[in-house]
């Protein structure tokens, strides 16, 4: 079980920054469809590692991107960045404690 959790967290640590960068690029280009795709992926990854707060923020951002109204996209990105950084710290500490 420890090995599986470690592998899952390792994948999250390597993939989540890529997902966040893809969201960032989609926002810059005004591509709500791409933003939804990548935030949905990050939401699933967060759920797999127990990151409920990030998962909720991703769900909120997903709805925001789906509605096509760009107001609030940058604020949503900032929230995702903060939540992701916090979750990555928590997971790193958890792994170190194993």
Keywords:
single chain; 98 residues; mainly alpha; 4 helices
Summarize the structure.
This protein is mainly alpha-helical and 98 residues long.
Description:
This protein is an all-alpha fold and 98 residues long. It has helices at 2-29, 32-48, 52-66, 73-97. Helix 1 packs antiparallel against helix 4 (73-97), helix 2 packs antiparallel against helix 3 (52-66) and helix 3 (52-66) runs antiparallel to helix 4 (73-97). The longest helix has 28 residues, at 2-29. The relative contact order is 0.16. The mean pLDDT is 94.
List the helices and strands and how they pair.
Elements: H1 2-29, H2 32-48, H3 52-66, H4 73-97
Helix pairs in contact: 1-2, 1-4, 2-3, 3-4
Number of strands: 0
What is the first-to-last residue Cα distance? 11 Å
The structural class is mainly alpha
Number of helices: 4
Helical coverage, percent range? over 70%
- List low-pLDDT spans: none
Rg result: 14 Å
Shape descriptor:
elongated
Overall pLDDT score: 94
Largest sheet: none
The secondary-structure element order is HHHH
How much β-strand is present in the residues?
under 5%
